[in-house]
Amino acid sequence: MWRAYLEGKSGLIHSATGTGKTLAAWMGPLLNADESPGLKVLWITPLRALSGDTQKSLEFPLADLAPNWRVERRTGDTTGTERARQHKDSPQALVTTPESLSLMIARDDHREFFSQLECVVVDEWHELLSTKRGVQTELGLARLRSISPGIRTWGISATLGNQQQALDILLGESLEKRNSVLVHGRIDKEIIIDSILPESIERFPWAGHFGTQMIKPVVDAIASSQSCLIFCNTRSQAEIWFQSILGFRPDWKGRVELHHGSLDREVREAVEEGLKQGLLRAVVCTSSLDLGVDFSPVDRVVQVGSPKGVARLLQRAGRSGHRPGVPSEIFCVPTHSMELIDISAARAAALAGAIESREGLERPLDVLSQHMVTVALGEGFDSDSLKEEVRTTYAYRNLTDAEWQWALDFVVRGGSALKAYPEFRRVVQQPDGIYRVEDKQIVLRHRLSIGTIVSDTALNVQYLKGSKLGTVEESFLSRLNPGDRFIFSGKPLTFVRIENMTAYVKPAAGVKGAIPRWMGGRLPLSGELAHAIRQKLDEAKNGIFDSPEMHLIRPLLEVQNNWSAIPELEEFLIESLETGDGFHLFFFPFEGRLVHEGLAALFAYRISKLQPITFAMACNDYGIELLSPERAPLIDAIEGGLFSPSNLHRDIVDSLNSVEMARRQFREVARIAGLVFQGYPGAPKSAKQFQASSGLFFDVLKRYDPDNMLLAQAEREVLEKQLESTRLATALRRIESARTVITYPERPTPLAFPILVDRLRDSVSSESASQRIEKLAMQLEREAG
Amino acid sequence: MYTSVCYMNAELRREEVLSIRGAELVLLPDKGIWWAAEKTLFVADLHLGKDASFRAGSIAVPCGATEMTLERLGNLVDAHLAQRVVILGDLWHNKNARCRYSESVFAHFRERFSGIAFDLVIGNHDLKAGPLPSEHAVGKLEDGAQLGPFRLHHDPSAVQEPYGLVGHLHPGAQLVSRSGRGFCSACFWIREHYAVLPAFGEFTGLARIRPTTSDRVFVIVDDHIREV
Prior knowledge:
By secondary structure, chain A is of the alpha/beta class. Chain A is built from 32 helices and 25 strands. In chain A, a hairpin with a 4-residue loop joins strand 16 (458-463) and strand 17. The two termini of chain B are 18 Å apart. By secondary structure, chain B is α/β, with parallel strands linked by helices. Classes of the chains: A alpha/beta, B alpha/beta. The interface between A and B is medium-sized, with 36 and 29 residues.
């Protein structure tokens, strides 16, 4: 890599965590270091919290290699005086975030500041690249390249399925693209994927069922390690496991901690510091600890529940033995029987190198219009030259003139020239033809709203006495009544009242209560892992049970095979079943929950076109249930093109309430495009008066300016991101070409049972649901013999 | 204390008639209250010109909401042959809302209904918007002004005996759709000592209410009105 750098090349370094990528990327610029003043290296990191650690590791080799160099930080925490000093007397290297880079571009002296720049390093590029923050970074890089042509761009990434594309997105259509390399991490990190297995399995599993019997082996795993990370897939699951572990080992209080994104920043930082110092036995966490902080003392990682994706599993495994040469080890803990297959499949996929890809985004106009205002804030822009600059990015390489013109109209006139936006002003074209922002209020507000991270409306959770605990989504709190108990931050709490965006609580005596259920808590299965699972089932069908997990689940799969069938790779299984509840159709695409939600609505819609019929729908990562009071015309529907990919787009739009979904998605678009201004503590009154909900904006735009391109973008994002329409179409093509196997089992099969249970849970009160489920499971267990 | 009668009118729009303190009030799905005996229409929180004030603040909201709000109000006046319109506060959103463009829209509307009396209980937003010119012909009512058995207020926290008609809150009730998703819908909130009207303006949001068991809540869903 150093040689490539010295030859003036750009590139992407990718490998597992803990293989010294940071140092590898840093050596090139250091070997090239000279005495001349000015900013030479810009180091972009996705997490502000990481910038401190990054600065330290970059400073480490300076004494030997470039004693006169300084490394400084530029983030949202940097004070105004500090920023001003950096512009007068700039360090040689600056660690920053995508947002702070945009803020620097919003200054009118940024051209001079970046004029000596030789290299940009984008750390954790895999985290950024398929997000709007990634697009924001691409736009920032395009600007830097236009200021100093010939700068080198280096990305650092975890292993991805599409390395070359990740590099292309980083470099865009720049000249450097022709002079770039992919660098594989030289040390192949050994990764051990192990599992903690229950002694026996229930044949009829449902989510969470292993729960209590798995606590003890997990506690043992913690006890036999120095320092252990326990990853959960959702925040509520993390809260539950944290409670259970402490319930088992009360003496660990204070040495086992909790870490997730809803907790107060100070609480999280204290936990991270404890991990770094090696003071903690274990931390129960969520994806909040997926990213790069170096916790060297951690020597064991536990994954609770299905890893849902291969890359995620490898990334988490890499959190242990975070040093070159030390193997990474991860223990997977299934929470119900079917997750045994997930674990076995994930290991097989990891061995085969079937790792998820991350795609770049295609020309989001909300990010573009934000960038236009950002540039207008600083030195201003000429329409044609900024358009050409923007088109050098990967995201906007196919930007049409009409789209550019619309975005320009949006920031200058408020919307398309065909619609009236009287009195609107934001960006103004000066007599010299340059677009600038004149109004100081607009400047202030835009600077405060630069960025693309949009969080759910969250309320602070705070004790009546004053200390803060963190934040919880408003949707959860609104269901609570004063006096209700819930568990948060590992503490039993009584809800008192909501006041000024704060939920006041007091400590509660007991721990019995609802765990907050956070939005978006359920990660969908990745396409790669889904494929590996189908492969594992295919093997099972053919009598191959080659891992401890598959051995354990073998009796359950044999029941499945006896009562119905196990689908082979080229087969698509449908089970048709009648119970007291009605007529059930179970489809098993094994494509993950998101795709299944789309398929369920699509199948229901297409069947109901043949015969008026109402369905109740349910799905999990493996399959779909359609329940109807009368028998559905399944065979007719299949012959009539139930699985046909033609008219897919139209049918999806018709079958789902996609308008309502787009209305929700518009929150993000409106915020980024500057329609909705998120308040901030101590915001002046003048800012608060412009707050309105994005749903209201959506309705008003839909009604009075329906051609507004931001509406179309929200609809596109719903299709692509929430419904994964591309994956859905691929899945449908696979299903159509597969051999359809329809079975008529007499009772719910092991594959069908968890879906049925999910539906019961959602439809009846929790108490009666668990009784019914228990009864049903016992009955099935008896019948399985 | 309430008796409630439901009937379908000629357009198959369900309305609710409440008898409060001896007066019969019709809750309209168009977010107003019609008091037939006095030929008076009550509305609250029009927030005229809010779209313009956002545009002036560099937030791109298209024209149309102010025009539509006034058009709906005009339709109600026509449909019921109202003689008087009482606005329970927040006619204008603020000073910027009263730009030349919005005021011309309002002047045009007022001309069309020059024979009808318009009275405004001054709300918090009207204070920001400043005094109205006489050619707008909008009468000013003191907060707490008496009309029959009612006291007219903007803000319910100021309500006086015996019974208040108020706005200000933009009440919304939490409902659950068939797909299980929660959503919020504008509503009339009838309490023991006062009734809260939904916000009439097109470009207004909702604030979720937390009714007690003695309250009655009438939600507006798709041009219908229904008690929940």
